[in-house]
Design goal:
3 copies of one chain form a homotrimer. Helix content of chain A is 25%, strand content 37%. The first copy, chain A, has 3 helices and 8 strands; from the N terminus they run ββαββααββββ. The longest helix of chain A has 14 residues. The mean pLDDT of chain A is 98. Chains A and B meet through strand 4, helix 2 and strand 5 of A and strand 3, helix 3 and strand 8 of B.
Chain lengths: 139, 139, 139
């Protein structure tokens, strides 16, 4: 069995953003030389997501609006968590809706994705350095 | 290490539906001859889900009602994504709540599921051909 | 390829609770002697979750309040599922928001977690014996 590990680093200048990381994950897979297996891609921080969906700006605006409606950032004092001095409780909720991780099949050395599947880093509390872990196992 | 890949195809006649695919995944596992490992089952489309829950009609009606409340289909023009000519922005949201994929343990050649766990394909924008990927690795 | 399987049992005295299971998963990994691979941790019941987030009491209270707002327990008769004699339809929804499972990378014999990542069992319909499955594959 082969195994591969790599960290992707982000420093998003805004509080929230969606970043297409598919090319970076494909580059990791190429570097791993793994032909058949599973690729795990997960946020290493608990106010960020890795998810798969469409690379369409209007949809990303819809996600932003929808998540803000499900778990509003303000008023900040509505959340117990923010009494610890944080202001990111909403980010911990948004991340649960969008998910922590994706597992992608690796087939014949490629990410085995459907026609419109793209892998995104979802940042909900940016403006600092944060990481995504890529772990691939297989042969 | 052994590996196995199979696609399941669906053409749901309605916009939304939940379909129990557990027997088909069990058949894939049998065909793979893998005894110990992990089975990934994921929607290959971004307006559909694979999830695990109960095979109970009332609950499925509740999911339908609840998801429609969290991310209503109409009015269609409330979503930026639908200005591209689509009418399925809500389906991209419903899918995030229900999830893209499940990873199921394989033990002694069986899907290692709890007593009520059943694997479902969740369609949120049907009436066309769409796929689910089954990838199993192990030995 | 090595493989390891273990069940964790819970009997939560309340309807809902969040329990940090990271030390137990780390003990499983140690017992497995697997150095590189993937660890799947999943609820075997469909009214419970396994998820990764912060071990902070205020945040857990926020999750409790937020999930209750997204999928209220009462009135019980608002859910079709509860006409079967159950009163836990809301638990089936809360579990979908928080997720069934996590997949964690195993690197150099350790759970490859970010600085604040902790693994939780999320109970939404307790007061009875329920299980979590730990399956680790690798070498």
């Amino acid at each position: 069995m082969k195994h591969y590990r790599h960290e992707l680093w982000f420093n998003v200048p805004t509080r929230r953003a969606f970043i297409n990381v598919t090319p970076q994950i494909a580059a990791c897979l190429h570097e791993s030389t793994i032909q058949e297996g599973l690729a795990l891609v997960n946020a290493m921080h608990i106010t960020a997501s890795v998810f798969i969906n469409d690379d369409e700006r209007g949809l990303h605006q819809d996600y932003e609006d929808w998540l803000e409606q499900l778990a509003p950032h303000e008023p900040i004092h509505q959340y117990h968590h923010n009494r610890t001095g944080e202001d990111n409780a909403d980010a911990h909720m948004k991340r649960q809706v969008m998910g922590r991780e994706v597992v992608v099949a690796v087939t014949e050395g490629r990410l085995d994705l459907g026609p419109w599947e793209q892998i995104f880093y979802g940042e909900f509390d940016g403006r600092r350095r944060k990481r995504v872990l890529v772990k691939i196992i297989g042969e």
